[in-house]
Amino acid sequence: MKLSVGLKVANSLSLTPQLQQAIRLLQLSSLELEQEIQIQLDSNPLLEKIEEINTTESLSSLEPNEAADLTTELNADHLPNDLPVDTEWDDIYTHQSTALASPEYEEREDNRQVQLSLKEHILEQVNLLHFSIVDKLIAYCIVDSLDDKGFLDTGLDDILLAVTRLLQEMESNEEVEQDEIIVVLKHIQRLDPIGVGSRNLAECLNIQLETVDTKAQYLVEAKKLLQYYELLISNDLNKLLKQTGLSKEQLKGAVDLLKTLKPYPGLEFNQQESEYQVPDVVVSKKDQHWQVQLNPDVMPKLRVNSFYSNMIRRADQSDDNVYLRNQMLDAKNFIKSIDERHKTLLKVATCIVEHQRAFLEQGAEAMKPLVLRDVAEEVELHESTVSRVTTNKYMLTPRGLFELKYFFSSHVGTTAGGEASSTAIRAMIKKLVLNENPRKPLSDNAIAEMLKNEGIEVARRTVAKYRESLHIPSSSERKVLI
């Protein structure tokens, strides 16, 4: 084996740190970008944010003599020797920013309200009841077994076992029977919201019917109807009429009364606070032309700190000078990456708007089929870059706020040889369902035939898939009783 030294030339691709940073910033949402910028501002002294200053009065607007006097007062480091009687500190030294602007934040009372969960709401009421220690322990175990709908998710035997174990851990000689658990459960079911702790839907509705005015019309019929709630849920009208012995008018009145009740009392406590998205791109129509612009509220204005950059000496190789030089380079690269991100986002958003003008003017039914490859070829970017720039980015249009991914959809062939967007087909299905006869809802086959008459070739299973994605129940579940 012979060892030798030689040169070899080869081409290879490598991601520089600057390119890696640009790619990472490209896929960040506006909130994540704001956090990343704050991290850079905290770690790099040569990077600073340009703040928009709203001044009520600036030094330049003052007379020269007034400005000199004001500067002298601001720079004073001592109190005057002779102060007027009853003078306070704020009369001499007021809180004022260096730009003579109004205070950045106004002191306000915190009026935010914290919404209690279902279990916390029930426990607050339990603590007001005159329960013994054992009954409170039972109540806590029952409340702990409630599901998100407010129903009891555990059998009474399991609750009895849990209470017995807790009493043993407390070294208590109390014995609990299932009848005591039932009594406590009935108390909880009468708390707010009425029906919480029920074991099924029929029990929940029956408890709520007990609180309805006895003079209410069709109250007796509604209670009788709940005895056959399996048929009620399955919408089997003929069997309901036969089993209950009610007329169609009585059945309709009983159903209308049941619709006024709350089938799932716990759902109102599970409503999470709405998450408001800040748009990255704003689209508006002006002079019959659609204009696309970046949201200025999410566009950070950064620059290199001139004070520190002037301290850098070209020939100085000291540690401090090298540190400042490296930090200035990092700051410039970061600002450049942010600028490239905004340019790419604006370019892709403009391309999307050009393709989806029909959607902006007519609605979702006019959505055109569009894939990432089409946009990538038009803006001369890689498909993966377009995917990154459309992730977690939002566009504000006259028709609402949409994620950029929303405008991309697969296509389905038409009888005329063209293509239709899957988003447009979903919108058409939703419109057909909204306009159907509730007594005779459209089946998936019927919807497929109606779409075929519109020139869209789509199979029944495809209609079913789109319908389920819209959370639209089947035709049998949509059918009303009367």
From TrEMBL:
| Gene Ontology CC, one term | DNA-directed RNA polymerase complex
RNA polymerase sigma factor 54 core-binding domain mapped to chain residues: 113-308
List each copy of the RNA polymerase sigma factor 54 DNA-binding domain by range.
Answer: 323-479
GO molecular-function term, one example from the UniProt record: DNA binding
A Gene Ontology biological process term: DNA-templated transcription initiation
Q: Is the keyword Protein biosynthesis in the record?
A: no
Q: Which residues cross the membrane?
A: none
Q: Which InterPro entries match?
A: RNA_pol_sigma_54, RNA_pol_sigma_54_core-bd, RNA_pol_sigma_54_DNA-bd, RpoN_core-bd_sf
- Key words of the record: DNA-binding, DNA-directed RNA polymerase, Nucleotidyltransferase, Sigma factor, Transcription, Transcription regulation, Transferase
Question: Does the keyword Transcription belong to this entry?
Answer: yes
Role description:
Sigma factors are initiation factors that promote the attachment of RNA polymerase to specific initiation sites and are then released.
Protein name as catalogued: RNA polymerase sigma-54 factor
